Write the structure tokens for this entry.
Amino acid sequence: MTSETNRYTLNHVAKAASKKSTATAAKADQMALGVLPEWNLADLYPSTESSELKADLELANELAAQFEQRWKGNLAAEASKPNGGDFAISIKEFEALEDLIGRIVSFAGLVYAGDTSNPKYAKLYGDIQQKMTDASTHLIFYSLELNRIDDAVIEKAMNDNPAIGHYRPWLVDLRKDKPYQLDDKLEQLFHEKSVTGRGAWNRLFDETMTALRFEVNGEELALEPTLNLLQDADGDLRKAASDALAKTFKENLRTFTLITNTLAKDKEISDRWRGFQDIADSRHLANRVEREVVDALAAAVQAAYPTLSHRYYALKAKWLGLDYLNNWDRNAPLPETPQAIISWSDARETVLSAYSGFAPEMADIARQFFDRSWIDAPTRPGKSPGAFAHPTVPSAHPYVLLNYMGKPRDVMTLAHELGHGVHQVLAGEQGALMASTPLTLAETASVFGEMLTFRSLLEKTRHKRERKAMLAQKAEDMINTVVRQIAFYQFERRVHTERMNGELTSDRIGEIWLDVQKESLGPAVHFGSGYETFWTYIPHFIHSPFYVYAYAFGDCLVNSLYAVYQNADAGFQQKYFDMLKAGGTKHHSELLAPFGLDATDPGFWQKGLSVIEGIIDELEAMDAA
């Protein structure tokens, strides 16, 4: 046997052994996780082929057409009659249609999210999107015509008829969109072309991303398991995962660059026609938050980069015995961090116990998600990456999607998404028109759920090393939620601004990405070759431009809110539930007032950031002790 042949044989054996070892470890991890639940979507429809789904598809189109025929051109006349005439009936019919269409679309979306690689589900999703877009085209006139009714007429109708007054928050909120509305034909065109425009590019992104595979040590993995390896204790494995991500992202860079350029231009066209002044104003309007408030948040976080992320990552490099962190070391566990897989049953108990310690009612609501199969937890090929809580419609209930792999962060993700779920259940009583909460406040309950879980675990910790690991994990999660998300926001702002002057090359987008990463994470983090492509996998950039600041908003708000809770007398829990039950019926200023908080106060954001700084202070003090 030649030395070359011998080398080949040894390498082949080593690779095979490595692959076998990885597979064996994966099997052991799966056993440690226990049985992971998959959701049961029968509460929406029995199956994709069910007669109930087919009947509702026909009914939605039929009722929408009838609604248009009955009410189009008649709203102002009805609202002007004594007690608002039949105007209240029109609102209730509109709400019922929104619930029906929402149920159908939610079902198709959840089926598709469960396996985007299944052609049958992809077709179902596409067909239902088309059919419900056609049905809802009959409803476009309603909000447009409603907003053309004189303010005095609407006000009198709301005052004279309690059935109309019930919808005051929705009616008042809807009229905030009035300056940005187009005429009926243009609105219809925008609506109908969304399926072949933004919606199609979103779907292309989703199907491309879930189809990607990343080769790590000879094994092909989907996105979520590969990203999970960046939290592994083995530095070589983290680097291998980072290299695999960079390689595959680079191979698909042209596709993601085209998607980004197209959607940024699509948004610019829409914003220009509607008259928005700033590239993020449409998101601010949807969030019902003032641009000045978001600007103040972003400025406060950017000013805090040196005292938060820069300082923390310098500490972490020292803890890991490194001169600096490579980008694949950023989420590495500390030596003190327990490496055991956290079983699903333990995760469930951890979160429910923390929720119960705050309020038994909160735990009771969250428990339904486990007991009634409202959670889909396993990772599997084709499944949407990440995690979400989908509210569906008030006549049904929310569903939670996870990719649970037993890491401490997965437990916090469970707590986060169940916070959303509890919020969505409580807000559901507001009905289809008023249950939805602006993104800025939608993140409040989720982050509060995380905080409750973290504090509960921290109180039970008796050993200094474990406490250090937990505090470090929390500091990282908060930096990821606040610093990293504001950096994402700045990245989006720069990309969308430059796109107004022409297409951006892949290299240029990568340059912007590295600029904001270096500024936000600081000199203790070094970025290896290929990291300039990591912007490609962030779904928020595609699905919800400028969504990301809502995470920072929610985290800083919750930090302030939790401080109020710690110092409050009895009654905080009821105020908190009242806030969640309000859904979309109140502005953030009204919701925060009972807690003595005001997001327009220049010092408000600093209060939230000081909590993160305090955790890093404690970690530094532990080193000094």
